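Entry for the shared binder. Reason: the reviewer on the internal report wants the predicted structure included alongside the sequence.
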Amino acid sequence: NTIDVNITDLAGNSAAASDWVVSDTIAPMFINVTALPTIANISSTISISFTSSETLIANPTLNVGSNSAAYQSNVGNDYTYTYSVTGLEGDGTHVINISGSDMASNSGYNDTNSVFIDTINPVATITSPLGGTVNTALVQFTLTDDSGSGVNISSIAVSGLASSFSAANCTGTF
């Protein structure tokens, strides 16, 4: 929109000014939010990237749960932040909160993404065989993960022995 102003004083002197303004009442949106890794342990650094729908007055604020993430860079409206897991956050799902204002001071917010923080080691217990000498045995063990992030079954091995494990029931023979 163009604004034109014309003025004349009582002596007949005149002046004119012209300017343009843009009316913006729409808040910025924060989209394409990605966090890697999506499951993090203590001392992990999570990289969080996203896009703002428009130019912002300043870098947006980004929190993981109630903790601040560190601004790293932006190219145009694409931003990258990092968050270092300390272990003080508590295990479980933590919401990624992004907030910022556009050039017209409209405030936008996004809290639809999250990361999972797991600081508890899983527990592995061998239940059979319990030691001694065996010529063939069914290996039975229990795997638990109290944090809820899950156990990577592909990481199971019996050292120095040929083995075959089934992920379906977590047992195998050697």
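Summary line for the report: Residues 167-174 have pLDDT under 50 and may be disordered.
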